[in-house]
Description:
mainly alpha, Tetracycline Repressor, domain 2, 0% strand, globular, disordered C terminus
Amino acid sequence: MMIIMRKEKTRTRSDAKEASHERIVQAASRAIRRSGYDGTGVADIMKEAGLTHGAFYAHFASREAMLAEAADRAGAESNALAERIIGSVPPDQALQALMQVYLSKEHLEGIETGCPNSALGSEMPRQSPEVRAAATRRIKEMVDLVARQLPDWGQPSAHERALVTVATMVGTLVMARAVDDAALSNVWCNATLKSLAPAKAKTRD
């Protein structure tokens, strides 16, 4: 009986630590998109996660380790959303649907929960190798996801088109967020939609 109770207590502590870790990573993944890597501090993240600053090192060896995991989580969430969008429409409409959502007003305004590439891309050259590696892995996944929606998937041409498509989508969102002119932001997104899918793209409302 004592052995069983000890195992249950150990499992409870383990579950609690895992839940705390999850809260930290989730808070950090939002914070980096909202405030950038340099604007994301350990103390603020721990407070947002409802934990003490001193508990941080029970979960991470360093701030960079936390940022790397946050970058990985942000990229994973973004790619998972893209997969859900693609899976919700017929295959021949998948890429168009993805671009429509990516360049939507909701995504334009939803920096904290949106694509980390458009929120953090310009900061990446100054980040640690572990943060860049985590982000790069998710960027490659995004490119591959787009390539799989193309009729010549599996050929070098599909990969090249996917690279251009992703770069154009991300770059458009960066510029549309940079300006303080809502009309220009809208025109920018619509122009990209027409350019990437001239035969089928529909402009945003």
